């Protein structure tokens, strides 16, 4: 897979609490240079200035990173983000609801954010797959689909259980049956890892170093 194609899978991500406006500007510069699909930032960093002529989108996290926010708060955060220029919302579910297989609660949580940020805003739902059993991964993915999400996403990248795995991506892709996108995020640091996630069914990648991956020539990319 060539670099322009791979870059279009990527949300170039900067969610560190200490991220500055200068850091965001550097993120945008890399995104424009390499042609990533979007930049993904914290809501307090909005608005993000994208140079004229670039098609790079702006994604913003909601209920991040714990998901332990009232649905109404997540919905309001999403609404404010869209009003300040966000094209996409990456929301975190209440992970305990997935652990306990309370999938109706997940559906209601996602539906509240969907109502506050309707199409054409893209809604991605972070399920924190590394903290879940297989039933939790599948059930949470299906609940997100029922609530009108556009993507299910593996991870925040902040959970101690870990980030994306090939196993989780495959389960999620099977669960949504091609009706939603699947975003693999968390721990994807090499070109080989990125390609492995795509082969497993990921249609978007959350990466903290797009430049590092796209300039990684050490991996064998034959067959992609």
UniProtKB/TrEMBL annotation:
InterPro entries: Aldolase_TIM, DeoC, DeoC/FbaB/LacD_aldolase, DeoC_typeI. It is found in: Cytoplasm. It is an enzyme of class 4 (lyase). Pathway: Carbohydrate degradation; 2-deoxy-D-ribose 1-phosphate degradation; D-glyceraldehyde 3-phosphate and acetaldehyde from 2-deoxy-alpha-D-ribose 1-phosphate: step 2/2. It comes from the Bacteria. Transmembrane segments: none annotated. Keywords: Cytoplasm, Lyase, Schiff base. SUPFAM superfamilies: Aldolase. The active site is at 90 (proton donor/acceptor), 153 (schiff-base intermediate with acetaldehyde), 183 (proton donor/acceptor). The keyword Lyase applies. It catalyses: 2-deoxy-D-ribose 5-phosphate = D-glyceraldehyde 3-phosphate + acetaldehyde. One of its GO terms (molecular function) is deoxyribose-phosphate aldolase activity. HAMAP family: DeoC_type1. Belongs to the DeoC/FbaB aldolase family. DeoC type 1 subfamily. PANTHER family: DEOXYRIBOSE-PHOSPHATE ALDOLASE. This is Deoxyribose-phosphate aldolase. It comes from Agrococcus casei LMG 22410.
